[in-house]
Amino acid sequence: MKTNFSKILWLVVLLITISFCACTESSSADKSTSTGISSFWITHVRLDIDSSTVFTIDETNALIYNYDSLPYQSPKDSFIPTIMGYLLSAVYINDSIEYSGSDTIDFSNLVKLTSYAENGENNQTYRVEVRVHSVDPDLYIWQKAGGNIYTETPLEEKAYFFNGQIYLFVRTATDAYLYRSTDAKTWQKETITLPLTATFQKIIKTATGFLVVDNNNLYETTDGIRWTNSTLTTSLSYLLFELNKKIYALGNDNSIYETSDKIQWNSVASAPSNFPIKGAAINVSYTPNGQAHAYVAGGETANGDFLSTVWSTDNGSYWTELTEGINYFTPRSGASIIQYDGMLMLFGGKDKNGVVSDPHWISSNYGLVWKRPSAKIILSFDFQSRFDQSVIIDDNLGIYIVGGRNFGYFMNNVWTGKKIEFTF
C-alpha cells in the first residue's frame, strides 16, 4: 500500500512538472522576437539646437543617423537620446550602460546600441552617428572657373543668366557675338545680328528676352541671336529695367518713361537730380514681402561726375535716395549690383583714378546702409578688381562674375562664388 502511494505521489509530481514546463515554454514562445528600434531622437541638456532633427534608421546597414547635419560647431556631448522599439526588453549603450531614458551620452566617438527583444534572447546592434556640419555654412567660396572665354579682342561685353544658361554678348570692331554656357567653362559661340553701333553695356534682360536702344531704334530678341528693330517715337537715352511687366527708360529730356507694349512710351516722372546717364549698376529684385524694387547704384552724371548714390523705386514714378547723401562707398562707374542671401551686394567699378580699391560692398537692409563684407564673404585675395563686369545668379544660387576689364585690357574669364549653406 505504501508502495502504491509512493508511485501515485511520483506520478502527480511528474505531471505537475510537465505542466509547468509546458506553460513556461508556451509563455516564452508568446514573447516578441522583434529587435528593431523604431524611432530615435535627441535633446541637449543645455542647447535648443536639435528640436527638429530627424534621425533615419537604416536597417540594412544597422545605422542610425541624422540626414540633415546639426549646425556648424554644435557640440556632440551631453545629448539625451530617446529610443523606442516594439516590446523591447532592454537597450544597452556601448555594451555597458542599460538605457533608462535619462542617460547623457557623448556622441563624439562611436556609439553602439544593442536592442534586446522581449524574449530576452534575440538582439541587434546599431551604430549611431550624430552628424555636424564640418564647414561653416556662412562661408563664401570664390574661385576662377575655367580659362578664357573668347579669342577676339572685344570693345564691350555684357552677360545675363537666361533660360538656364549664361548669355555673354561680345562686341568687337567688326562683329557681334553671343557666347552661351551652362557651366562657365564650355562656351558655344554664335554670330548675332545686333548692330555694332549699339551699346552692349546697355542691353537689358526681360521676361521674354533682351532689349537695347540704339539710334532711335528699339532692338529686341527672344533667343539672343536674331534681333529685330522698331522705330521709337520717343527719344530715349537708354533702357533701365523691366519692373512689374513694364519697361522703364531714361529719356534724352531727363524724364523717366515706361511702356507695357514697347510701342507707346509714357513719361511718368522727371529723373532725380544727378541721376546717372551711364555706368550705373542696376538690379531688380524682391523684398521679403514679395514686392519688386529696382536699384540704381553709382554711375556718371552728364557732367562726368562719379556717383556713390543708391536710388530705389517700386513703380518708376517715385524714387528714393536710399543713401541720403552719405558716401558709404567711393563714387564709381561700371559697378554691378545683385541681391543675394537677403543682401544687396555691390561689385567693382572705376573712378577718375582707375579701378576702385574697394570693389566689394554689402547692404543687409536693402540699400540703406553699406559696409565692407566680413572675412566670410569677401572676395578671394587673388581676384583682380575690375569694372564693367557682369554679376549674375543662376538657378542654384551660384554667383558668376563674368568678364569686366581694367584699363587697357579685358579680363576674359569667370569667377564663381557661393555661400556654402546653399550647397547642402
CATH topology of the largest domain: Neuraminidase
- For this structure, what is the CATH homologous superfamily of the largest domain? Kelch-type beta propeller
CATH top level assignment of the largest domain: Mainly Beta
Helix run count: 1
Largest sheet: 6 strands, mixed
> What percentage of the residues does DSSP assign to strands (E)?
35-45%
Structural class: mainly beta
Helix content: under 10%
Taking the alpha carbons of the first and last residues, their distance comes to 90 Å
Q: What oligomeric state is this? A: single chain
CATH architecture of the largest domain: 6 Propeller
Determine the mean pLDDT.
Answer: 91
Gyration radius, rounded: 35 Å
What characteristic shape results from the CA principal axes? Answer: elongated
Report the count of strand segments. 35
How many domain units?
Answer: 2
Uncertain residue segments: 1-26
Strand order of the largest sheet: 2-3-8-7-5-6
Helix-strand blueprint:
Elements: H1 2-30, E1 37-44, E2 55-58, E3 63-66, E4 79-85, E5 90-93, E6 97-98, E7 111-116, E8 123-129, E9 140-145, E10 156-162, E11 165-171, E12 176-181, E13 188-191, E14 204-205, E15 210-214, E16 217-221, E17 228-231, E18 236-243, E19 246-251, E20 255-259, E21 266-270, E22 281-286, E23 292-297, E24 310-313, E25 320-321, E26 336-340, E27 343-347, E28 350-351, E29 354-355, E30 360-363, E31 390-393, E32 399-402, E33 405-406, E34 409-410, E35 414-419
